[in-house]
Amino acid sequence: MKNLIYPCLTLKGKIVEASDFYIQTFGEGKVSQTSSFVIQIELSGQKIMLLNDGPSSSPNPAISFMVICESAEETEKYWNKLIDGGSILMPIDSYDWSPKYGWIQDKYGVSWQLYTGDKADTPQKFCPTLMFTGAKVGEATNAVHYYTELFPNSNIQGIMKYSEADGENTNFVKHAQFTINGFVAMAMDSSADHKFGFNDAISLVVECETQAEIDKYWAQLTANGGHEVACGWLTDQYGISWQIIPKALGKLVGDPERGQRVMGALMKMKKLVIADLENA
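User: That's the sequence. What structure does it adopt?
Assistant: Structure tokens below.
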């Protein structure tokens, strides 16, 4: 079940330089698959897809990546690389929750929360963090329960609400950590006027073994106000974008004999049909 769920970043025209940048920044990385459309990289064993085309939106901090660092020196090392052409969202400093923490948006618009803490609490190095804000503020708890009920091998590690001292609605989530099919994610609410919300520049990819899995996730994630987009993409009721794809898609698209035909068939679909892709 390794890497069944992983993030996709849409960075048009920049995926080659971005893949090099992230591997150099974080180390323990490699390019695992490359084409003109997509570069797959692995950072600390985690798969991340960089997409060269697709949505016209740009990444914003509504989805950031919590990076679990084991020492202040490690945190500072990443910070010093990400600051090149980037901008500071929260300065690197000592905070109540971490002896060394900073939130930074890199030159590609991707946001990283560098957190010094115990790896035993969060064994996964990079954890997408969903910030429910604007019209979606207050939905974090519902979303965490929804996702953990939808996917197998899921659980909620903890949901911490704001206190009176935080100056925020005490029903809202300050920090939640949960696992969906073995993949660790985080969530929070923020009622501040951020001028941004979820968009499709950062999506979550779900690799499925069977058509039945695709059908199940597609039906449930498009329900209750979610909607189909195209080419295996959908937006759920909370505004999060997902790609529901067959596990064999990379192999099918990369086949020199029929890759173009597979892409042609895929471009005409909303929900992906494995048999039709295999028969293209």
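The helical segments are 15-26, 72-82, 140-150, 211-221, 249-254, 259-267, 274-278.
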